[in-house]
UniProtKB/TrEMBL annotation:
Transmembrane segments: none annotated. This is Sigma-70 family RNA polymerase sigma factor. SUPFAM superfamilies: Sigma2 domain of RNA polymerase sigma factors (SSF88946), Sigma3 and sigma4 domains of RNA polymerase sigma factors (SSF88659). One of its GO terms (molecular function) is DNA-binding transcription factor activity. InterPro entries: RNA_pol_sigma-70_dom, RNA_pol_sigma_r2, RNA_pol_sigma_r3/r4-like, WH-like_DNA-bd_sf. One of its GO terms (biological process) is DNA-templated transcription initiation.
Amino acid sequence: MNDDKIIELYWKRNSEAIVQSNKKYGGYCFKIAKNILSNNQDSEECVNDTWLQAWNIIPPNKPSELKMFFAKLIRRISFNRFKFIGAKKRGGGQIEAVLDELSECVSDNTKDVEDEIITKELGECIRVFVRDLPAREGDIFARRYFFTESIEQIAKRYSITTNNTMVILSRTRQKLKLHLIKEGYLYE
């Protein structure tokens, strides 16, 4: 079933929307959750929570790209679950590594409304930066820092060495840092 028909089912409040969403995107969402949580049961629960949130969000929203809509939902839900269960106990996940790698460029400081607004603007600034990267570099960056894929998975996908992947990510983080300094989000 195509995405427009699935969205139409959500708008009609037809529970078949969830069945079709799971059929088409269940594996995709599970993989994203598993990359974040490293636990099958928690990942399955997050996938189910994704369908519930989609049910509550569509309508009034009408996603332009259903796959990315679900990716954002599952990612947010999985990160919240990760925080809730205390990820250090789980081990084996990519989150600690991803957050550590990005810590030199971005800090998580959302203590009040002003900080939340700055954080949203920062997010948009990073999205623009990634969109302007060459395709492969942008995809590698997104796979690591949005989809939390391991360096080994990325290297295998592009038939490059893990060292080459780490160099690409390091150079891209450095470019991001310079971009954020230029935009006034970081200071040297």
